[in-house]
TrEMBL record:
Pfam family, one: Lactamase_B
Organism of this sequence: Hymenobacter crusticola
Protein name listed in UniProt: MBL fold metallo-hydrolase
Residue span(s) of domain Metallo-beta-lactamase: 15-228
Keyword RNA-binding in record: no
SMART domains: Lactamase_B
InterPro entries xrefs: Metallo-B-lactamas, NDM-1-like, RibonucZ/Hydroxyglut_hydro
Top-level taxon of the source organism: Bacteria
Keywords assigned by UniProt, alphabetized: Hydrolase
Gene Ontology molecular function terms on file: hydrolase activity
Length: 311
């Protein structure tokens, strides 16, 4: 666990982060959980919650930046263990949290690394939290976290949000941008700190994603803790974030991909339309190896002289 700034702790779960947040001026006050990790992580999440806030001290709220599988994995167990704790997300994210719609399919043709190529294996069926999940308040306040506000940062997902604390300019940006190159398994393993665009394989609207990064630069954050990678801070953070916003199309947007020419369309009911798929490089590679194998077998068979029948 990493103490990011006073009142914010990050828990890394294999390759994704979730956050415990409390007002540093009110050490006995309420706290909230931001995102909910990978499936199977609930025991660890509960364990750290107890370590930080004491036994039988559930959060005031669970806040979701978005509902991708690696940010909601422990939710089912957590809502059972904390039966009175509400979950909040943006209204445009609710269809994927209430079983109404699947996300736009990930685009494994972008990003280039193993994490991206394997993304077609990631679960994308919606979970159903029923009435346990509620829309974030329209006025931008954050339930359970006075002093914070949320802002819509769509593009990586239709209803993606970020959370910002004005007093020390701390930003929890989810996957609107990240501080590691998430598409590459090597970079994820090394956890090199570097500002990158949103993980490309799930990003379904690149115009919105660019506008969201620009909105976050305008906040001039002092610290940014994102869904993937280690938190970054100060001038280094602001310089790299400014670079990303100014050169978003070259630095973050893939040259080609399913959602590059046109975005997925979604509303409060879920996905309305998606562009046609583009070929997945990994199955193509496997198919290629398979075809080469078959061709080699056929050629080898042809080279063999036909068996002579003994007379
Ligand atoms: Zn995501
Ligand atoms: Zn993520």
């Amino acid at each position: 666990m990493q103490h990011v700034v006073p009142g914010v702790w990050a828990l890394r779960n294999v390759f994704v982060n979730l956050f415990y947040v409390r007002d540093p001026e009110a050490p006995a006050g309420p706290w909230a959980l931001v995102d909910a990790g990978l499936p199977g992580s609930a025991p660890k999440v509960l364990d750290k919650a107890e370590f930080l806030f004491g036994e039988d001290n559930p959060p005031a709220a669970i806040l979701l930046t978005h509902g991708h599988f690696d940010h909601i994995g422990a939710l089912h167990t957590l809502v059972e263990r904390w039966p009175d704790v509400p979950v909040y997300a943006h209204p445009l994210e609710l269809p994927y949290l209430t079983g109404r719609s699947s996300y736009p399919p990930p685009d494994p043709s972008v990003g280039g690394g193993a994490m991206a190529s394997l993304s077609f294996l990631y679960p994308k069926k919606p979970i159903d939290l029923g009435d346990r999940v509620k829309p974030l308040p329209e006025d931008g306040t954050v339930p359970g976290l006075p002093g914070w506000r949320w802002l819509a940062t769509p593009g990586h997902s239709p209803g993606h949000v970020s959370f910002f604390r004005e007093s020390d300019r701390t930003l929890l940006a989810g996957d609107a941008f990240v501080t590691t190159k998430q598409e590459s398994a090597m970079a994820v393993w090394q956890q090199k700190q570097e500002v990158h665009g949103p993980p490309a394989y799930f990003t379904c609207d690149w115009e919105q994603a660019r506008a969201s990064v620009q909105a976050l630069v305008a906040l001039q954050p002092e610290v940014a803790a994102t869904g993937h990678g280690i938190a970054m801070r100060g001038q280094e953070l602001r310089d790299q974030l400014t670079q990303l916003a100014q050169h978003f199309d070259q630095a973050a947007k893939p040259a080609q991909g399913r959602y590059v020419p046109q975005p997925a369309l979604a509303d409060e009911t879920g996905v309305i339309a998606v562009p046609p798929p583009v070929p997945n490089p990994l199955p193509n590679l496997l198919l290629g190896i398979g075809l080469v194998g078959i061709a080699a077998y056929v050629l080898a068979s042809q080279d063999k002289p036909a068996p002579q029948r003994q007379k």
